[in-house]
Amino acid sequence: MKPSGSTKIVRLIGYPVEHSKSPLMHNAAFQSLGLDFVYLLFSVKPSHLKEAIMGLKASNVVGANVTIPYKEEVMKYLDEITPEAKFIGAVNTIHNREGKLIGYNTDGQGFITSLLTDGKVKLEGQKVFLIGAGGAGKAVAVKLAERGVERLVITDKIVKRTETLVGKLRENIPDCPVYALFPDDKEFAKTLLGSTLLVNATSMGMKKGDPCVVDPGYLHKDLFIYDVVYNRETPLIEAAKKRGLKALGGIGMLIHQGAASFEIWTGQKAPIEVMRNKILEELLRQC
Questions:
Q1: Which of 8, 71, 138, 278 is catalytic?
Q2: Is 57 a catalytic residue?
Q3: What is the distance between the alpha carbons of residues 89 and 277, in angstroms, rounded to a whole number?
Q4: pLDDT in tens, 148-166
Q5: CATH assignment, 120-245
Q6: Given this structure, which CATH class describes domain 8-105+254-286?
Q7: What secondary structure does DSSP assign to 32-48, as a single string?
């Protein structure tokens, strides 16, 4: 279906966005259901973020996804934020509902769905080591704490960000033991070696030449590794595979959070297998 003057537009707002596979899966999904929608990349410099968000109120724009580095910054420009997104402190999906911009967060649910269905991971009894307390990290942390993992350790290079997230989780989800750990802490290696689930919720590994987010020597046989980065096999995933460990990249999270966003914009059930096949097809093409 060719775009026309009546085509409904969805944008991906971030900086950079050129690496994103979201247009492929969403446009395939729209086409499979015969919807007159189009998903477009929208690279926005920080100084133009407010104007880009206000531009979503145009009559034919139904919404947007928000990616690095704006998931937190974007919140102040929205008319309404769902309680879940407000608690997480980050928005990855915006819906233009009759001129009112409503912010949602589908990242956390996308992560949990992928972990359970793609990774076959049981969350009960998991000792989680989470790297990253930014937009994606917050969503992942909230969902893991809500699911009642045995304990959750969070680390981030920005100390204040870690402390804030840990404090919020302790206050609002007191039944889940949550701890802050800093990269130079002498307990870092010991804590990771005692963990059963390692999650990288940073962008480290997205670019060629990025180092492994942790020392590969800390990856042990009882550890399941999940990396939210999806555009390439990261050094963390490579290191895990070399050691014969169970590991997942972020493709599943991308698909499931995208499916939730799709349903918000369209009101229709997302064709998940169509979306998955399109992403896998593109990744095979790149090999």
A1: 71
A2: no
A3: 32
A4: 999 999 999 999 999 999 9
A5: 3.40.50.720
A6: alpha beta
A7: HTT--EEEEEEE--GGG
